[in-house]
C-alpha cells in the first residue's frame, strides 16, 4: 500500500483523496471494533472491583469507586479454590504430558510409515473430528463405571495416552511431512534406529508444532467442563470450572456478580498470559490446521 | 491426596500397557501377515490411536445406539424397550421439540453471521495499516477467553435488571414503549441473546484462519482484474470468494458442528426452562440428573443424525461453489 501511494502523483487529485478517505475509514472501523471487543473485558474487571452495594447501581458505574481489591481474596476464599486449582493443575499436567507423548508418536507413524490400510485409518481419524462428543458420552461413562473409576481423576487423564485429539495428530503430522526425507536417511545411514531418529533428529525439528500442541492442550484441559462435571462427584476433587459452576449458586439464587467476575478474571488469566507469551505459536497452529477450540 | 497418587500410578501404567500392545501388534503383523519391518512398525506406532478409537469411539458409538432402545438407570439392569424412548421423545417429552427448534435455529442463524463476519473482519485486518499487529492481538482476545468466563460475562451483561446491554438499549426500548427484556427467561428473547453472544465468536479463530487464506491468494489475480477494470466488489466476488472457498467450506462445516453442540456456555448462562434448553443440555439432564440413560442416548442420536445429515448436505453442495486449485488449471 505504502509503495503504491508513493508512486502516485503528489497533487491532491480526486483519486488520491478517495484513497486517503478509504484509509481513514478503515482506521475508524478497526479502532471502533477494537473498542467494542475491549468493553466486555473492561466491564468484567470493573464489576470484579465493585463494592457489593454498587453492583446494582443504575445507571451502571463504569469505574468502581472505591475499587474493592479485597474482592479478589474474598471471592477466592469463598470456596476451596486453592484445592480446586491444585486439582486442575494436576489434571492439566497429566493430560498434556500423555497427549503430547502419544500424539507425537502416532503422528510420526502416519507421516513416515505406510502399511496396508494406513490411508483408511487416517481418513477415519479425520472423520472423528466431526463426531459429536455427546453421542459417546454415556457409554464412555458406563465403561469407567465398570472399571470402578467414576469419581476418580482417571477418566479425565488416562485416555490422553491414546492420542485423543485428532487435531493434534493432524497438526503434528503436517509438520513432520514438511521435513525432508534426507534427514531420516542420513540418520539411518549413521546407524540410528527409528527411536533414535525420532528423538534426536525429528523432535528438535518440530519444536514449534510441539509448542502449539502444548498450548492447545493446556487450553483444552483448562477449559474442560463437561468431563469434570460428570466424573468428579466428590467436592474435594472438583476442578476450577466445576467449582465455578457450583459457586454460581442454585437455579433460583441470584449470583454474587462481583465475586463471579473476580473468578472469571482469574480463570481467564493463565490462558491470557499464555497467549501473550506464545501468540505466534497459537496463531501458527490455528492457520496450519484451520482448527477450532 | 491418596486418590491423586492412585491415579498417578494407574496413569503411569497405561503407557506400559499400550507399548506392550504395540509390540504385540508388531509381532503379529510380521509373523502372521508377513509385513515388512517398516510396515509393522508403522502399525505399532499408530496403535495407541487405533486402540483409543476402538475403545472410546467406535464401541461407545454403537453402544449408545443400542442404549437408545433400552431402559437403563445406571445401576439396574438394561431392559430392551424397542422404540419407546423415541416415541416418548417425539410425542410426550415437552422439552424435546423446543430444544430441537432452538438448537437448529441457533446453528442456522449464527453460522452465516459467524462465517461472513469473520471473513469481513479478516479482510479488514488484511490491510497494511499502522499498529495492525496490536489490532490483530486485540481481535484474537475473544477466542482466548475460556468459555466459562465468556458465558458468565455475557450472562452478567444481559442481566435483565442492571445489565449494560439493557442499559445501552433502554433509550430505544423507551421509544418503542416496551420494558427491558428478560433475555434468558423468555423464549422470545433467548435465541436473540445467544445469537448476539455468537457474534463475539466471529473474532478470533475464524478470523485468523480466513486471514491466512486471504494472504494465500496470489496478488497477480487482483492486479489482472484491476487492469480489466473490475471494481472492489467484483474482485471480492470473482477472485477472493472462489480462491478461499475451501477455507469457507471448512469454516461452514466446523462452525455448524460446533454450533449444534453448544453446551458449556448454555450451562453457565442457564436459560430458564421456560426459555428453552439446547439439545446437549437435555442429554446431560436426562442422563445425569434424571439417570435415564436410554432417553439421553436417544436424544444424542437424534442430534448425531441431524449433524450427519447437515454435514452431508454441505458436502453435496460443494461442486456448486467450492473451487479447488487442481481443477482450475485447464
Defining key terms:
heterodimer; A: 293 residues; mainly alpha; MetI-like fold; 2 domains; flat; disordered N terminus; B: 330 residues; two-stranded antiparallel sheet; 15 helices; globular
Description:
- The complex is a heterodimer of chains A (293) and B (330).
- By secondary structure, chain A is an all-alpha fold.
- Chain A has two domains: 71 residues, no CATH class; 213 residues, MetI-like (MetI-like fold).
- With 330 residues, chain B is an all-alpha fold.
- The longest helix of chain B has 31 residues.
- The mean pLDDT of chain B is 89.
- Chains A and B meet through helix 2, helix 4, helix 5, helix 6 and helix 11 of A and helix 1, helix 2, helix 4, helix 5 and helix 6 of B.
> Structural class of the secondary structure composition of chain A?
mainly alpha
Terminus-to-terminus distance of chain B: 67 Å
Q: Report the C-alpha radius of gyration of chain B, rounded.
A: 25 Å
How do the helices and strands follow one another from N- to C-terminus of chain A?
Answer: HHHHHHHHHHHHHHH
The unreliable regions of chain B are: none
Number of H- or I-type helical stretches of chain A: 15
- Strand portion of chain B: under 5%
Helix and strand pattern of chain B? HHEEHHHHHHHHHHHHH
Name the overall outline of chain B. Answer: globular
Largest sheet of chain B: 2 strands, antiparallel
Roughly how many Å is the radius of gyration of chain A?
25 Å
Q: Any idea of the CATH topology of the largest domain in chain B?
A: MetI-like fold
Distance between the termini of chain A: 34 Å
Tally of separate helices of chain B: 15
Largest interface here, residues on each chain? A-B, 101 and 105 residues
CATH fold category name of the largest domain in chain A: MetI-like fold
Largest sheet of chain A: none
CATH architecture of the largest domain in chain A: Orthogonal Bundle
